[in-house]
Specification:
The protein contains two helices and four strands. By secondary structure, it is of the alpha+beta class. A hairpin with a 6-residue loop joins strand 2 and strand 3. The relative contact order is 0.34.
């Protein structure tokens, strides 16, 4: 079993309040959850006005599938005009249980 984990630092250029920022992040999380069937959460920069951080994870028995999935998710987020990706940290871990 392999686990893909990815953490993305986001810029929200149009953020005028924390309420607006949380609305955008929540919408993005829900879209990712439904479209890609992954676990996703806001994991950092909670009180920053124009910055956000989300993390997502997926499980598979093939690393090639997970690499492709992470690429698709990142491309999907890049096409969302409400956010810009600032940083990407991604990793695939082998679990030998």
């Amino acid at each position: 079993m392999f686990v893909a984990i990815c953490q993305l630092g986001l810029i929200l250029p149009e953020g005028s309040s924390l309420k607006d920022k949380r609305s955008v992040i929540k919408s993005l999380r829900e879209r990712l959850r439904h479209r890609f069937n992954i676990s996703v959460a806001e994991v950092g920069r909670l009180d920053a006005l124009r910055r956000g951080e989300i993390g997502f994870a997926a499980v598979s028995n093939e690393t090639a599938y997970l690499e492709s999935l992470m690429d698709k998710i990142i491309n999907y987020i890049e096409k969302d005009g409400r956010v810009e990706i600032e940083t990407i940290e991604r990793e695939i871990i082998k679990n030998g249980c």
